[in-house]
Each structure stands twice: as structure tokens, then as C-alpha cells.
Design goal:
The protein has 474 residues and is of the alpha+beta class. The chain has ten helices and 27 strands.
């Protein structure tokens, strides 16, 4: 077949047509790009999907209310006051646990059938699903940012986050991982930041501030494995509770010959003029001064050392109406039983005196030299049991926070039976149950020359009155 040749004019006309079509296509693309720039939420329409009705089945599992957590809550509320930071949060959570325990008791006696709910398609809440470059909602893909409403996303670890957004900002979010569920504020990277709560699968509950997915700032934690932690957190680590030093608290001191002797000089104590004027540089009393409500006086050390000022200070303190107790400084160079007898035989302990104290401050090298923790704990038990039999008062154990963490992991019986007096010279209260906290070794007291150990009772007037009456802090 003979091919038909196009004339030059025809070829030019065809070329002009192509150029017009290309210009029109480029114009259309420019308009789409411009509209997308001016309105990022432009939609590419697809046929609306079929949204079925929803059926929800609620299975009523047993409600757990850990008795240990309830006891720890009770202890916290008993030893704190409504003016303490975090008290109201603890009270609210305690009410929740109490209600949960009540529900658990009711459900244990009656079997409940699953609850079935039908939700019509028109009533279903359909959140958006964010993806790279846009989001899906109701079967349509939208380019640009999702600015308002419920949305589902994934964080950089692949965890699913359900959030509510407003003005392109996360208002609140919920995320569940292998350990529990977080609810609260998040930053743009979908990390917990701001205020939020975390409920772990083991029953632990944290409520407070977060930063970069870690507890940071003020918050509290309730757990079945340890006591309530209320106070400051830093990068996921609990620092401790920071006290407010008010006149409602009970303060005291402990003294030895060092309050009487400074080199070759000798000093007396003006017992009628005692008043705490400083708690040390780490503790801000906001200009307040406090009365001395109790004093502990060193009586003996080892089996050969006695405090020459003990008797005089003891009589003077009692004369001023100050509650008095005595302490023994424990030595690892002599038998515990001999030390206990030496202490009791050279110490005045009346019925209305405070419980005697065993002061234990060995170094790690000294503990290792006698055979380790178990041998040390055996000696401590021997001393405490003997003194209790002889005086009919349950002694108090004076130790440091580091000592109880390092050396008393296998001493649950001691911590349960005896009150503990903790020395910790930081700004935060020790993270253990205690009767006294020795918060400073550099306090100042009118009537005493030089620095003095300052102590605060763990509780307020009600608990103090009970302790004065019974000699034991619950």
C-alpha cells in the first residue's frame, strides 16, 4: 500500500496542536499545585466505603485491688498532712483503690455475663489515620496535616498512639505498650511530655510530669512491690520527697561530748534557751525557728567508752520537759551481747523515756572483715533483742540510707519489728519507712555551741502523741 505523505502545513498544524495540549496540561498541573499549596487538605475523592454497624462485647474480668497498695496508701496518709505536696493526689487515688476493692468484693460473689452493645454505622466515631504525606479518613486520603479531631498514629518505635488534636497540636493521647498504658500529654515526636499517667500491667500506677518519655518533675507512684513514692523524679529516677518545714512538724536533736568539747575548750548547754534556728544549708525553713521536742544523748560505745556528759545532759533535758532517749554507738571489735549489757548497765531508761537507740555506722571494709552482711545482721539482732528484754522497750535502729540499701536486703524481720532512724544529708527525705529523719549534721541551735544534728519526726501531732504513748511508730 502506498504511504500518504503529509504536507508541511499539515505537519505544522499538528505540532501546534500538541503544543497547545502540552500548555493546557502544564497549566492544569500548575493550578493543581497552586491549589495544593494554598489548601493542603485537598482531597482525592474515592467512592465512599461501606461502614458497617459495630458490635462491642464487654467481658467483666476480676477487678484487682492490691492489699499491699492499700496499706501503703494508708501509711502515707497517716504520716502526712493535707499541706504536703501531693497529698490530695494520693487521697484521690486511695479513694479509687478503695472503690476498686469494693467492686472486686462484689464481683467475687456474683457472676456477671458479658455486656453486648450495638453501635449504628452513623453513630460510629471514625478517627483519622496519619501516614506519610497525609492521612486517611472515612475512606479518603487527604494530603497535608491533620489539624483537628481524633487520630491514630505510630511513633518512631512502631507503637500505636491514639490522640485528639486541635490546631495541629496533640491535646491528649493514649499509648499501650508491652508494659502498660500511658494517658496524657505528648510532644510532636509522640513522646510522653507534660502531665500524664501510666498504669502498668503489674498494678503499678504513676501520675505526674514527663519529659522525653521519662518521668521528670513532680509525681507519685503506687506499686505492689514497694511503698508509695511521692516527690521529685529526674529522667525516670525517683529522687525523693522534698518536705515543707512548717511549725506543724516535730523537730529534735541528738548530742554527744562533741557539743561540749571543741579542741581544748569546754562548753555547757543552756537547756532553758534551746531553739532550732537553722536546719542546714540544704533545707529552707523560710526564716522559721522551731522548738526542740526531743533529744537523744550518746551514752556508751563498744564495751569501754562512756559519755562523761550523759548524766548531766539527761537530767537537764528532763527538767526542761524535753522527751529524752539514749543511744549506743555500735562497735565491731567486741561481742554484741557484751555491748548490749554495757549499754543497759550504764544508761538511765525510765518508763516515760523514749526507746533506746542502736547507732550502726560501719564501713564496707569493716563489714567485710567480720564476714559480711549476715554476720553483721546477726550481731544487730543480738543487741536489739537483749536490750528489749532488759528495758521492756523496743529499740530503734539508727542507720544511713545507703546502709539499708546495701546491707539490709535480707533483713525484712528487723525492718518490720523495729523502727528505723535514717541519716540522709540531702534535700530529699529517705525512701524507706522510718520514725526519724536525720536531715543535717550542720544545724544551729540557740543554747548550743557549734553545729548540731537535726532530726524531724515522720508524722504530725496525732502520730507524735501515739509514739509518745506507745514508744512505737506504726
Amino acid at each position: 500500500m502506498k504511504k500518504r505523505r503529509l504536507s508541511k502545513s499539515r505537519m505544522k498544524a499538528i505540532a501546534r496542536g500538541y503544543r497547545r495540549k502540552n500548555r493546557q496540561l502544564m497549566a492544569d498541573l500548575f493550578i493543581v499545585a497552586l491549589l495544593t499549596l494554598l489548601n493542603p487538605t485537598i482531597s482525592y475523592k474515592t467512592p465512599p466505603p461501606h461502614i458497617p454497624d459495630k458490635v462491642e462485647i464487654e467481658v467483666h474480668l476480676p477487678v484487682k485491688a492490691d492489699s499491699i497498695q492499700l496499706k501503703e496508701m494508708e501509711y502515707y496518709l497517716r504520716t502526712h498532712h493535707v499541706t504536703d505536696e501531693g497529698y490530695n493526689l494520693i487521697a484521690q487515688y486511695n479513694a479509687l483503690l478503695t472503690q476498686r476493692a469494693k467492686i472486686a468484693k462484689e464481683r467475687s460473689s456474683t457472676a456477671r455475663k458479658p455486656t453486648i452493645r450495638h453501635i449504628k454505622a452513623k453513630d460510629r466515631l471514625l478517627p483519622a489515620v496519619k501516614t506519610a504525606g497525609g492521612y486517611w479518613k472515612s475512606g479518603h486520603f487527604h494530603m497535608g496535616r491533620y489539624r483537628k479531631g481524633p487520630v491514630i498514629m505510630r511513633d518512631y518505635q512502631g507503637r500505636i498512639v491514639r490522640a485528639v488534636m486541635h490546631a495541629d497540636t496533640i491535646v491528649t493521647a493514649m499509648r499501650t505498650d508491652s508494659s502498660g498504658t500511658y494517658r496524657g500529654q505528648m510532644d510532636s515526636l509522640l513522646q510522653a511530655s507534660g502531665q500524664g499517667t501510666y498504669d502498668a500491667l503489674d498494678g503499678s500506677h504513676y501520675e505526674g510530669f514527663w519529659l522525653d518519655d521519662r518521668r521528670h518533675g513532680f509525681g507519685f507512684e503506687s506499686s505492689p512491690t514497694h511503698q508509695v513514692r511521692v516527690g521529685e523524679w529526674k529522667q525516670g529516677r525517683f529522687l525523693g520527697e522534698r518536705l515543707r518545714y512548717t511549725n506543724e512538724r516535730i523537730y529534735g536533736i541528738d548530742i554527744s561530748r562533741h557539743q561540749h568539747e571543741k579542741g581544748r575548750r569546754r562548753y555547757g548547754i543552756n537547756w532553758s534557751n534551746l531553739r532550732i534556728t537553722s536546719l542546714g544549708h540544704r533545707h529552707n525553713a523560710e526564716g522559721r525557728s522551731f522548738p526542740v521536742s526531743f533529744v537523744y544523748i550518746k551514752s556508751t560505745e563498744g564495751t569501754t567508752i562512756r559519755n562523761r556528759y550523759y548524766l548531766k545532759d539527761y537530767v537537764a533535758a528532763r527538767t526542761q520537759g524535753i522527751h529524752v532517749g539514749a543511744y549506743h554507738f555500735f562497735s565491731l571489735k567486741s561481742p554484741a551481747l557484751e555491748q548490749a549489757a554495757y549499754f543497759v548497765n550504764h544508761t538511765l531508761i525510765h518508763d516515760d523515756d523514749f526507746p533506746p537507740v542502736l547507732d550502726v555506722e560501719p564501713t564496707d571494709a569493716q563489714i567485710k572483715k567480720i564476714g559480711g552482711d549476715e554476720e553483721l545482721l546477726r550481731r544487730i539482732r543480738t543487741f536489739l533483742e537483749y536490750v528489749e528484754r532488759r528495758t521492756h522497750k523496743r529499740p530503734i535502729l539508727y542507720i544511713s540510707q545507703s546502709f539499708i540499701n546495701r546491707h539490709m536486703k535480707n533483713a525484712a524481720d528487723i525492718k518490720q519489728k523495729y523502727n528505723v532512724w535514717i541519716a540522709r544529708y540531702g534535700e530529699f527525705k529517705p525512701d524507706v519507712k522510718l520514725v526519724y529523719w536525720q536531715l543535717s549534721a550542720e544545724g544551729r541551735v540557740n543554747g548550743i555551741t557549734g553545729p548540731v544534728d537535726i532530726n524531724v519526726f515522720n508524722g504530725y501531732q496525732g502520730q507524735w502523741d501515739e509514739f509518745v504513748r506507745t514508744g512505737f511508730h506504726r
